[in-house]
Amino acid sequence: MPADRSPADPRPGDELIVDGRASVQFAAGRGFRFRVTTVDAKLTYDGWVWLAGYVLAADGEARERREIFVERDGLRWAPRPRRPHR
Hints:
Number of domains: 1
Largest sheet: 5 strands, antiparallel
Order of helices and strands: EEEEE
Number of strands: 5
Shape: globular
Helix content: under 10%
Strand order of the largest sheet: 4-3-2-1-5
Number of helices: 0
Structural class: mainly beta
């Protein structure tokens, strides 16, 4: 979670929560953790952005590649997954 900027300004490597706040298509329990790989520079609707990246499992491992169209102000930082103690 970079303290010097907002999740509304996503960059490659950021891990975000994508849910109904970011787009109605991810509401009602369809939200997920997402690791950004690409932020599309194309102009879209004001306040929205195309992101490419990976849906993350609970352990932080990439599970599915996706491209998503989301509202910037609805993005939130994802908490770091807890690693089991060895």
